[in-house]
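Appendix C: a fully annotated inverse folding record. The material below is reproduced so that readers can follow the format used throughout the book. The structure is listed first as tokens, followed by the designed sequence.
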């Protein structure tokens, strides 16, 4: 046996060399010729030149071929007559499936009666108008059927596409390198410098169910850039022009206004002016002119229309019917200002009953000084020297000459406070004092006054100086509250009574010029208690006929027959009741006599009821009831003892 070369194996694609003898072959002299050629098949084994009968040769399909449906792999046998057995063709070309292009056509179509293509067939795919091959900018492609029944590339898909959008004047789009645009692809339009897009600059390819692909928006246009018309407040344009790219305008401000910024501006490709539009602002005047003897407010900025008011300096006043104002005009100058101020004049300072001892003048102006002197018998009220001030007033105010009182009346053995005073004007006060050891009798001070409003006089005579001593004040059953040993003129003493006595008269007295106490000294009278009467009771002892009783006096009472004392504890069982006159004029607790019968008991109950209704505390009410219970038991015991006797 020979082994095939590697080249032969590659050519035939054989994998195994198979020899299958048909049973046990006896040696023979005949052989079969070379195995028959089967279309599109190859021998799987090499049998050599001498092929004995019974030799079986198997075949396989060449690359790109496959078994026909309903057949099995072919083989031939060397028969006894040294011929080969018959075999039918069993290999046919490999089939590729029909690509079935949607929204496109395939050329050529499958063979009549078949729905597939054979190995080696080439098919041209062309998409319908409005469609393109996905992943390929063209609308056509070639595919060929491979030996394994697959197409040499993925079968193309015809998807909706948009044609290249139109170009626009003065602009362009960024998709000029493409012919087709798949759904979702976008194109941006841009305008040349000095033009602006009108419409939607970004468009994209879109498609819907059953609707061909088209662009999302109409193709935009490029129009020449227009800058907005400058709106200059308080200003205007020198010439009316269009406001397109690169055009220029010049701004002019109204009277009284000045431009801020460049006045000539140019329209830029972005639709804005460069430099920025100027603004017109109010112009300013320089500092107002100086005016003699005037000042103004410390203002530093003077826009057009500003009014400045001058005011005269100290000692000067405005001229009549002259306006102190000036205005900043639209030509940036100030309105005319006349002379404004004149020196201040003060009124004539002449006074009655006096004269000016400085040099007299016909007119008195700011800064002038004047000095005055009064006639004999008059005194100057106010300042002796005055000055004319900037407001036309004299300061201090102009004085006047007032009449004065003569020397105050003299006093013996004393003196007054005006010894060193020459003039005593209206309202002057003089105070007198006595020599040591003497008392001043009368008013200690007198005043310069007037009865008729014209003439002046002293308010009274001078007081007297003399010795005044009052006797030591003594009152029976009383005392002085302030202890003293001397009692000169004017001393005041207060009094009080001993216990059991009451003061009759004034409790204070003063030593006066007659060496007597005024008011007279009081007396201390005993305190008296009033006469007593006890209902259903009587006084024990002989009545002495007194209607009132002195302190510590005692009276004894007993109840009438059938009555008893009403009280707490043993007092209600006593036979007599004693009361004492107190130092304040009141008696000690008075007795009450009540009947000894059921009515008394009811009366006690009523008292308890009244106490309860009056809001007596429960604890106290409880104590009261226990006492009443004890009282009833005592009464019961008394009755029982009486029955035993």
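Designed amino acids, in order:
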């Amino acid at each position: 046996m020979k082994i095939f070369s590697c080249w032969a194996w590659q050519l035939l694609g054989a994998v195994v060399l198979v020899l299958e003898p048909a049973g046990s072959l006896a040696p023979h002299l005949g052989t079969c010729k070379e195995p028959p050629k089967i279309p599109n098949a190859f021998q799987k084994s090499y049998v050599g030149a001498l092929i004995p009968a019974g030799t079986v040769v198997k075949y396989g399909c060449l690359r790109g071929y496959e078994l026909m449906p309903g057949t099995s792999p072919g083989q031939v046998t060397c028969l006894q007559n040294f011929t080969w057995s018959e075999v039918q063709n069993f290999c046919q070309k490999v089939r590729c499936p029909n690509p079935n292009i949607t929204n496109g056509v395939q050329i050529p179509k499958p063979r009549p009666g078949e729905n597939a293509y054979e190995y080696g067939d080439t098919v041209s795919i062309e998409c319908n108008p409005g469609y393109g091959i996905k992943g390929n900018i063209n609308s056509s492609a070639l595919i060929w059927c491979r030996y394994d029944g697959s197409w040499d590339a993925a079968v193309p898909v015809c998807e909706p596409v948009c044609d290249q959008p139109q170009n626009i004047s003065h602009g362009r789009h960024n998709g000029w390198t493409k012919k087709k645009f798949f759904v979702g692809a976008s194109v941006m339009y841009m305008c040349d410098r000095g033009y602006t897009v009108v419409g939607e600059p970004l468009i994209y390819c879109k498609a819907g169910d059953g609707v061909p692909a088209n662009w999302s928006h109409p193709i935009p246009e490029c129009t020449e850039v227009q800058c907005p018309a400058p709106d200059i407040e308080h200003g205007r344009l020198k010439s009316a022009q269009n406001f397109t790219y690169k055009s220029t305008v010049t701004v002019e401000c109204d009277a009284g206004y000045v431009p801020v910024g460049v006045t000539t501006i140019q329209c830029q490709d972005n639709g804005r002016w460069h430099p920025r539009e100027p603004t017109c602002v109010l112009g300013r005047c320089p500092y107002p002119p100086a005016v003699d003897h005037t000042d103004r407010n410390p203002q530093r900025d003077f826009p057009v229309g500003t009014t400045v008011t001058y005011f005269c300096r100290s000692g000067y006043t405005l001229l009549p019917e002259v306006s102190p104002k000036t205005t900043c005009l639209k030509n940036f100058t100030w309105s005319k200002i006349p002379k404004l101020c004149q020196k201040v004049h003060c009124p004539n300072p002449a006074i009655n009953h006096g004269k000016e001892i400085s040099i007299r003048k016909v007119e008195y102006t700011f800064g002038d000084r004047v000095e005055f002197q009064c006639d004999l018998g008059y005194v100057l009220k106010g300042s002796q020297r005055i000055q004319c001030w900037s407001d036309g007033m004299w300061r201090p105010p102009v004085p006047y000459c007032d009449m004065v009182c003569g020397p105050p009346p003299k006093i013996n053995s004393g003196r007054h406070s005006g010894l060193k005073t020459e003039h005593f004007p209206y309202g002057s006060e003089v105070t007198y004092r006595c020599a040591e050891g003497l008392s001043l009798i009368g008013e200690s001070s007198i005043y310069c006054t007037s009865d008729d409003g014209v003439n002046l006089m002293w308010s009274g005579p001078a007081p007297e100086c003399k010795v005044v001593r009052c006797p030591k004040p003594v009152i029976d059953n009383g005392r002085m509250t302030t202890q003293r040993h001397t009692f000169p003129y004017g001393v005041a003493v207060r009094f009080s009574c001993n216990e059991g006595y009451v003061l009759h008269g004034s409790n204070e007295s003063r030593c006066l010029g007659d060496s007597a106490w005024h008011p007279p000294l009081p007396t201390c009278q005993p305190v008296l208690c009033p006469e007593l009467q006890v209902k259903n009771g009587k006084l024990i002892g002989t009545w002495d006929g007194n209607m009132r009783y002195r302190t510590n006096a005692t009276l004894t009472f007993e109840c009438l027959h059938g009555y008893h004392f009403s009280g707490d504890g043993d007092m209600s069982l006593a036979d007599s009741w004693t009361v004492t006159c107190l130092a304040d004029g009141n008696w000690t607790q008075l007795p009450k006599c009540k009947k000894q019968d059921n009515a008394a008991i009811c009366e006690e109950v009523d008292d308890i009821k009244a106490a309860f209704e009056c809001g007596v505390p429960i604890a106290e009410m409880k104590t009261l009831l226990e006492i009443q219970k004890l009282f009833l038991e005592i009464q019961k015991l008394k009755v029982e003892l009486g029955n035993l006797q």
